[in-house]
Design a protein that fits this description.
The chain has 211 residues and is mostly beta strands. The chain has one domain: E3 ubiquitin-protein ligase SopA (Pectate Lyase C-like). 5% of the residues lie in helices and 30% in strands. It contains 1 helix and 9 strands, in the order βββββββββα. Strands 1, 2, 3, 4, 5, 6, 7, 8 and 9 form a 9-stranded parallel β-sheet that branches.
């Protein structure tokens, strides 16, 4: 599903460093490609109607980042501080967010497609109409979240932590996991396969199922 309202042909070439030149720390209408933007330090940067391709943000501190109508392709956000970010109509394709911290972020109409989010801190999120498609979320922390119209499709979520998060209307039947970290009280309304249900029943309800 497409969310970002971006026409790449209408954008001009730019660099992430331009965000420092604007009084409001804003970058708009740009295509940024093949850039090393590691270890940046900026609070409340605003990026609108932009495309980033093969940009490396590793270990950057981008707290309170605001993104609207932005597409990221093959970008690296590993170990980034993205706490309290606001993401509205944003798409990530083949991006790396291993160990990234998005605690307290607001996500609305966001797509993560073939992304690596292992060990990511995805806590205290307010999530609306967001999709994780063919992503890795192994050992990620996905706790204390408010999930509305959130989809996980064909993802590896082994050992994903889901504490203090209602799983009602969440469908994990296409996902892969041997174990999850959660509370039995949050299982009501969760959709899983028969095999997954047996595993969860054994782990959290002490029920043994014979076949």
């Amino acid at each position: 599903m497409k969310f970002a309202k971006v026409v790449p042909e209408s954008l001009t070439a730019g660099t992430f460093a331009e965000v420092y030149d604007d009084i409001d720390s804003m970058l708009r209408g740009k295509v940024v490609q093949n850039e090393n933007a590691e270890k940046q330090r900026i609070t409340h940067a605003i990026i609108e109607t932009a495309v980033f391709e093969r940009v490396k943000f590793t270990k950057s501190k981008l707290a309170k980042l605001e993104l609207t109508d932005v597409i990221f392709k093959n970008c690296d956000f590993s170990n980034c501080d993205l706490t309290n970010a606001t993401l509205y109509r944003v798409e990530f394709y083949d991006c790396k967010l291993v160990g990234a911290n998005l605690e307290g972020a607001y996500l609305s109409q966001v797509l993560f497609d073939h992304c690596l989010l292992d060990l990511a801190g995805l806590n205290k999120l307010d999530v609306r109409k967001t999709q994780f498609v063919s992503c890795n979320l192994k050992d990620a922390n996905f706790s204390d979240n408010n999930l509305r119209e959130t989809e996980l499709v064909d993802c590896d979520i082994n050992n994903l932590m889901l504490y203090d998060t209602s799983l009602k209307n969440l469908d994990l039947s296409s996902c892969r996991f041997a174990t999850l970290e959660l509370e039995s009280k949050t299982l009501r309304g969760l959709t899983v396969t028969e095999e997954q249900a047996a595993m969860l029943a054994n782990s959290y309800l002490g029920v043994r199922i014979k076949y």
